[in-house]
Amino acid sequence: MSEARPRPAPGERLTIGAVGARYLDHLEARGRKHATVVGVEMALRVHLVPFFAEKPIDKIRTSDIEELVALQQRRGLSAKSIRTYIGTLSALFNYAAAPQRQWVAHNPARGVELPPKQDNQDIRFLDPDEVASLVRAAIPGPYQQIDRALYLTAAMTGLRQGELVALRWRDVDWPAARIRVRQNYVLGQFGTPKSRRSTRSVPMADRVAGELDRLYKVSGQPTEDDLVFADIHTGGPLSKPAILRRFRKALAAAGLDETRRFHDLRHTFGTAMAATGLPMRTLQEWMGHRDIATTQIYADYSPSSHEAAYIQEAFGSTDSSLRASEQITGRDSEAAGDLDDCGDAQVADAALGSADLDGVHPRAVGESFLGDPEALAVDADVLADLQLGLHRGDPRP
Asked: What whole-number distance in Å separates Cα of residue 50 and Cα of residue 380?
């Protein structure tokens, strides 16, 4: 498929805006995800085109880009945002410098010193009592049963919000006790999951199965192609701003911090699974992380029955003190072995407990940003659909 815009005429001096428009055509022609294209368009429109204006792209120097970085820092943009926008600019220069174009001689963004990545210490999650309280506090009304099932499924499967919204009844495998992730819903469009690993199967614990079964019955036994969490008025996908509004009302009704994000339910799952001793490779598969390094952030919450013993021995422990340490950990050394499809649903049940959801580790963890190899797009369902800007004015609750 050829690019939509014509090549520049001989002698034409291209600007960032002109090259950016061609680059967007190029991304769409290559079938890049809608979220990637939208992320690049936003970076161009909000940051890159206003700064470089009509300056020809072949006249942009490393010092110009360093000035842009400094300006963004003075404006208070996060290091993550700056790295994303400069990454997009670098991809744009790579496109312009390709042998078939040669609109620039080199990529000046390569020499730019970027602000260091910041460890996110502020990402939170709900403890088991809070999860139970949130589910009970789902706002009364036509969406109550949907929200109850939505909150519990998010906390006990780790699915992203877009994956939950796109879930269909055919994806709920009752006999195998698994939920199969095949689609995502981001920026108002259905598409494939975020990465190859995001197409996956996740164990369905008994409590989740029971809540989904109740939702299935009150929904009038929908067809396999119907959405699990369908809007009751349209049958289509739930409005994400409406989900957030009801989520915050439920948090307030449960006496919880209303600033929590829906995405914190995903972190609840990751932390709880790590606390059971689940192998990181298995957790990576369940959460659909492309890179094991992303999953590894949960490793600090994975218990071990041996680590304390090493320290005790190094400092001259006695047998009795070692036995006391084993009692404190309260874990069987073989409990963290490999799991198969017959047992992994029970791990989710055990991690979040029975009716009281006991047992989740009381700490928060974060999920690192995964950049696109060619054009960096934003994460967490594209920053909650670009801060929900595509859904303003939705009248539904």
From this structure: 26
Residues 6+ apart with CB under 8 A from 158: 202, 266, 269, 270, 273, 286, 287
pLDDT digits (tens, 9 = 90+) for 377-386: 344 444 444 4
**β-pair type (184-186, 178-181):** unpaired
Q: Report d(CA 234, CA 94) in Å as an integer.
A: 44
Determine the number of helices (DSSP H) and then strands (DSSP E) in the chain.
Answer: 17, 5
Side by side, the strands of the sheet bearing 172-173 are: 172-173, 178-181, 200-203
For the chain, give every domain's residue range: 16-111, 128-298+341-391
For domain 16-111, the question of CATH label 1.10.150.130 is answered with: yes
The CATH number corresponding to 128-298+341-391 among 1.10.443.10, 3.40.50.720, 1.10.1740.10, 3.40.190.10 equals 1.10.443.10
- pTM score, whole prediction: 0.64
